[in-house]
Amino acid sequence: MTIRVMLVDDQALLRTGFRMVLAAQPDMEVVAEAGDGVQALEVLRSTQVDVILMDVRMPHLDGVEATRRICENGQKEDAPKVLILTTFDLDEYAFSALKAGASGFMLKDVPPAELLAAIRAVHSGDAVVAPSTTRRLLDRFTPMLPATGESARPELERLTEREREVLLLVAQGLSNGEIAARLVLSEATVKTHVGRILTKLSLRDRVQAVVLAYETGLVRAGGGAGA
Q1: What whole-number distance in Å separates Cα of residue 52 and Cα of residue 184?
Q2: What is the pLDDT of residue 131?
Q3: I need a labelling partner for 5 at 20 to 30 A (CA). Which of 11, 56, 92, 117 fits?
């Protein structure tokens, strides 16, 4: 299956560089480009896209608001997934984009191999992109937000004890393989648990699960389990 990618960045030179990297991949195709969020939303009306590489700081409509509008479709299977690219390692704009529904966060100077792996991961929904970077971003900014507490998300009560345990480990940045080793389960079983967690909590992917765990206090800043 070919992954249809859209590039959204106000710097044409950067789009050209990303397009050259992606064009060399047999499983990827750049199907659209846009210079800002307004253009991106317009293009999406007539173009099928799987993954969007989204800059955050752009004129007219920034990447955060564009991401929010794109992700409003929530659980729609054909809704594109957004991978945020930014210049700064700890960027409040990137954090806001994750809150708005982006599936991942990476730096613009990421090595090509990591960028390609990230696109594939976002497309599959199986892995958190750059878990250590995403977690540091959450550690930095979640203390600035009012904690909602678990009572604000009663659907957490639908999770079994094992699913809750898996969610905590996902929120701490562990991969399926690492969770399987920690809990002495098969990787396939862990993947099944993660899928059920996302379904029960109406989340699109693991990054949203991580954000939810921080917001509700299941995980504290620093990556540890909450009280």
Answers
A1: 36
A2: 53
A3: 92
Distance CA 33, CA 8 (A): 6
Lookup: tokens for 91? 């960027």
Strand duo 28-34 + 3-8: pairing:
parallel
- Please write the tens of the pLDDT for every residue from 125-168: 755 555 556 667 777 766 665 555 555 577 788 899 999 999 99
> 104: number of CA atoms within 13 Å, CB side?
30
Q: Which two tokens stand for residue 205?
A: 């992917």
Residue 72 has pLDDT above 60, yes or no: yes
Tokens linked to 121:
């991961």
User: Following DSSP, what letter does each residue of the chain receive, concatenated?
Assistant: -PEEEEEE-S-HHHHHHHHHHHHT-TTEEEEEEESSHHHHHHHHTT---SEEEEESS-SSS-HHHHHHHHGGGTT-TTSPEEEEEES-SS-HHHHHHHHHT-SEEEETT--HHHHHHHHHHHHHT-S-SSHHHHHHHHHHHGGGS----GGG-GGGGGS-HHHHHHHHHHHTT--HHHHHHHHT--HHHHHHHHHHHHHHTT-SSHHHHHHHHHHTTSB-TTS-B--
Q: pLDDT tens across 168-188, in order?
A: 998 887 888 899 999 999 999
